[in-house]
Structures are given as C-alpha cells and as structure tokens.
Amino acid sequence: MSKKKRTKPPQDGFSRRDFLKGAGITVSTGLLPVPGAVAARPEDSSEVLGPGAVPITLNINGAARSLKVEPRVTLLDALRNQLDITGAKKVCDRGVCGACTVILDGRAVYACNVLAIEAEGHKIETIEGLGTEEHLHPVMAAFVDNDAQQCGFCTPGFVVACKAFLDKHPNPTLADVEHGLGGNLCRCGTYAGVREAVLEAAKTLKGGHANG
Fold first, then answer.
1. Could you say which of 101, 129, 157 is where a domain stops?
2. 55 touches 68 (CB < 8 A)
3. Residue 103 three-state SS
C-alpha cells in the first residue's frame, strides 16, 4: 500500500508556525519604545507644585494667631503642627470620627474638613479654650462624674461637640442627645456615659454655673 505523500503548503499560504512567530514578534515589539519617541521625564522634585505659603490670622479661643500656611493645609494640621494646639486629635482625617471637632462661629465642625485659609475671619473654639484643670467647663466636669472616657483619645472632640450642642439645645432629651452627637465615634464604647454627662451638664448650665 502506497503512502500518501504530504503536500507542502503553497508559497503564498500562512502556516500555524508562521502565525505564532508573527504573534510573538507583535507582542515583543509592543513592549519596545517607538522609534523617535521621547520618554517623559519626571518633574524635578525640587520644584514647588502649587502656590506657596500665605500669611493668615486665625481667631482661636479669643486670641489672634498669625501663621503662614499653604492653601492646601487643613485647620487641623495648622492647629497641631504650627500652633501647638493639639487638643483636636487627628484620627480618621476624613471627616468621619469627630475626634478633631472644633467650634467655628458657634457650630461644631470637623477641623480636618476645613482649610485653614477658610477659617480666617471666623471665631474658632478648641478644647483648650473651654476650661482649665482648676476651672472645668460643666461638660468637662460631667464627663469626669459619669466616667464618660476610657482611653480619652476621642474625648476632646466629644466635649467640644457636646458644648456646641448644648449651646443650641439647652433642654435636651436623651433622644436629642443621641441624635445630636451622632457625628462622633468612640472606639471604647462609652456612649452611655457620654449621654448621661450631657444631660447632667445641661442641668448645671441651666443653674448658671457655666464658666463661659
């Protein structure tokens, strides 16, 4: 029985081996630089990107504080890093936890969400301006009386938020307190103590024992 002779592919045909070779060349050349193209060079790291620092004056706890900040600097970073006012804590840095709460024109705000230059011309109150060890603000005293702090890291933000809340709601119910302090988080879970502290402070403030 005669063997069938294998025929060669036509000269103008395209074999599987030719296809794989061509595909390999295509993939390889795709990783090579295009002739004549100029590679992008990274910017010189010594160059200043964006506007530089500008002088501003902030009204903090009744005192004018002058400083220079880049427009991108938050109020929280300006307080902590340039003015050494460190009561407001930097925790989430995303406007979620409330540890950096300050009072801006009577309203509780997250200092990490406010640019320092935006705060110029406004009245800023921080935990440092609410009281001292010798003369505690009623909210501070109530926190101690009701064991409303454990690690204490969230406490300054809570105290400031409570003060701002009571300024606007002097006769709160427990439900009012729960709703009004919903923007502050405590990892230790001392919410029950915090709520009781606010209700106690409200009674004290109504009795005229606040220190300002």
1. 129
2. yes
3. strand
